[in-house]
Amino acid sequence: MKNILLILRREYLVRIKKKSFWVMTLMMPLLVSGFYALLFWGVFNSREVQRVSIIDESGSFTQKFKDSEKVKFEYLNLPLDSALGRLNQKRTDIVAMIPKDIVVEPSGLKIYTGKGVGFEIQGKIERIIQNEIRNVKLSKAGIDQKVLEDADVDVSSKVVVVSKEGEQKEQNTLASTVLGFITVILMFSTVIGFGMQVMRGVIEEKTNRIIEVIISSVKPFQLMMGKILGVGLVGLTQFTLWITLTFVLTTVSSSMLPSQQIAKAAQEQMSEMPQKDKDKIAKKVEQTPSDASKVMAFIQSAKNLNIPLIIGCFLFYFLFGYLFYASVYGAIGSAVDNETDTQQFMFPIMLPLLAGYLIGLMTAGQTDNKLLFWASIIPFTSPITMMSRLPFGVEPWELILSMSLLVISTFGMVWIAAKIYRVGILMYGKKPTFKEIGKWLFYKG
Amino acid sequence: MNNILEVHNVVKRYSQHIALNDVSINIPKGVIFGLLGPNGAGKTSLIRIINQITGPDEGYVLFDGQKLSQKHIKEIGYLPEERGLYKKMKVGEQLLYLAQLKGLSEKQALEKLKEWFTKFDIKTWWTKNVEDLSKGMQQKIQFVATVLHEPQLIILDEPFSGFDPINADLIKNEILELKEKGSTIIFSTHRMESVEELCDHIALIDKSEKVLDGPKSEIKERFKTNTYNIKYSGELSTTSADFDIINTEQIEDNYSSSTIKLNTGTPVNQLIRQIIDQVELRSFGENIPTMNDIFKMVVNESID
Known about the structure:
The structure holds two protein chains of two kinds. Chain A is of the alpha/beta class. Chain A has helices at residues 2-16, 19-44, 80-88, 119-141, 145-151, 173-208, 210-215, 220-255, 259-272, 275-284, 291-304, 307-335, 343-362, 370-375, 382-389, 396-424, 434-440, and strands spanning 50-56, 71-75, 94-98, 110-113, 159-162, 168-171. The interface between A and B is medium-sized, with 23 and 28 residues.
C-alpha cells in the first residue's frame, strides 16, 4: 500500500506540474463562462446605434421602417453609387437596396455594409420586407389579414413531470438535453484522454527501461495501480477545478447583468416586433416567448435540475469508468513497445466507448428507449450513456444496479489487466497478437 | 550461513523454450561473483528470479538462509543491463523516489544522497532533468540509485558499458569499496578482462544450464594446460620423457621462443634444469589460461 501511494504521488505530481495541465484546467471554465456570458450579451447587450439607409426603388416600403433604440433608418433618393459613397464616408453604416421587382423577385434584396452586418439587423430588414410583401400578396388574393391571423395558431406546450407522490414539476427538456450532451461528451473525452495518459505512461516506462528497476522494488500490480490512481486523481482534480472555476466565473459574469436590464432588453425586443406579432402576443399574453424570455426560461429550468446529484454521479461514473478503461489502456501499453503498435488494440476499446457515446447523444431524452436503458446499465457503456439519462431523472434502482455492475466489473477488469501487464512489461521486440496476450493471462508468477 | 544466496535446482520455462534448466548456484558472502555466459544463455532470467521480477517454475532460492520473499527486496540492489530513468524528472527527485520505493524514508534517502553527491562531485545535477545529462552521467545516477539503500546483495548487469575509462575506474573502485564494506556483488558481464580483474568466484551458464562454477583461482587451476613459454638462444631438443616441445619459432636476433608441455608428475625445477643445460635461457613463464580462454573453451565445447 505504501508503495502504491509513493507511485501515485509521483504520477500525480509529475502531471500536475505540467503546463498543459493548467492550460486545460483554466481554458475550459473560461470557454464555458465565456459562452455563457456571450449568450447574455449577445441577446441583451445594446450595441451602438446603427444607421441604415434604405434605397426603395419599388416604392412600396415608405414609412414601413421604424426607428428603434438600436437602429435608425433613413430613406435615400439617391442612386446606389452615391449611397455607397456615403457608406465610405461613414455617414451611414448599412445600405439596403430594395429593387423594383422585389415583390416578384424576393431574393433581389441587397444589403451593403462597410464592416459586416449583424444577424439581428439583417433579420429585421428582411422581416419587414417579407411581411409587407405578404400583405400585398394576400390582399391581391383577396384574403383578409384577420382571417389569416386567426388561422395562424401557435401551438406550444409545457412538459410537466408528475412524480409518484403526485408532485408536478415543469420540465424544460432543452436544458436536460443540453446538460446530457455536455456530460456525455465530457465523460467520453475524459475517459479516453486520461486512459491514453495511462497508456503513454506505461509505454514510457517500458521504452525508458526504468520498468525493470522499479519492478525489482515493487510488484507490477502496485506500479500499475499507482499509475492508474495517480492519473485518475489528476482527472478528479481537474474536474473539481473546472466545476469550481466555472461556477465562480459564471456567477461573476451573470451578476454583471442586473435583472432589470434583462427585462428591459426583453421588452425592447418585443417593441421591435412588427405590429402583427405584437397583436398576437397581446392576444396570447406570454405564450410566445421572445428570444430573451426563452433564454430566461432555459436558465430557470436549468436551475431546477438536480445539479448536485448529476455532479456526484458524474464523478462516480468518471472514477469507475475511468478505472475500467484505464486498466485496459494500461494493459495495452504494457503489451507494446511504442505507441504506433497500439493501433490494432485501439479499435476494440473504442468500439464500446463510441457506442455509449452515440447512444447517449442520439437517444437523449427518449426515456423509454430500451437501447438507451440497457446501454446505461451495462458496464462497458454505462459510464457514458447514463450521463445522458440523468438530467431526465433515473429510477434509484436503475442507478444502483448500473453502479454496482460497474464497480464489480471494474474490479474484474483491473484483475485481468494486471495479469496482462505483469507479463507484458517484460516483453520486448515482437508485437504481440491477441492470442498471445490471451495466453499471458494464464502465466504463473 | 556462509552463502548470501543459494539457488537450488531452478527451472524456468517460457512458452517456446527453457530459459533455466535445473540451475543451482551458491554465492558466498562478501565476494564479487561473476555470472558469465553467452547471450541468451539464461543469465537475465536468473537475475530476474533473484530480483523476484519473475518466479521460478521449479526449485527455490534462499537469501541468507531464508526463502526469498518480498522483505528481501530492500536487501537487493539491481542495475539492469538496459538502463533507464524517467527522462523528464529531476535527478534529485528521481533518486529520492527510487530510494523510497526500496523502503528508505525520505529523510534517510536525502542524507545518503548528499553523501553520494559529494563523493561523485555532482551536486549541481540535483535540479537537472535526466534528459539533460550525458549518457555517462545518467549511468552514474543509476549506479547511485542501485546502491543507495546499502543492500547486502548488489546485482550489476554489464556495469561498465557506456562509461569512459576514467568513470569506469571510478565505478570499479566503488564496487571494490562496497565489497570491503561487506556487500556481495553479482557481476554479469561479457568483458572477461573485468572478470579477471574483479571476480573472486564465477559461474558460467550456457544454454540454460550451469556448466562451470567455483572460485576463480580454482577454475584457472583446473583449466591449466601445464604448458610453459620460454625464450632462449641456442638449440633446444627433447632430452627426456619429462617434457615435449609443442612448437618453436625464431624471434629477433638469435633468440627462439618455444611452447613446452610438462608431462604430469615432473616438477618445474627439473624442467628448468634440463633446459639450462642445453640453451641460454632468457625468459620462462607458465601459460595460465585467461578467463577469456576458459570462456571460449567451455562454450565452444558445448557447441560441439
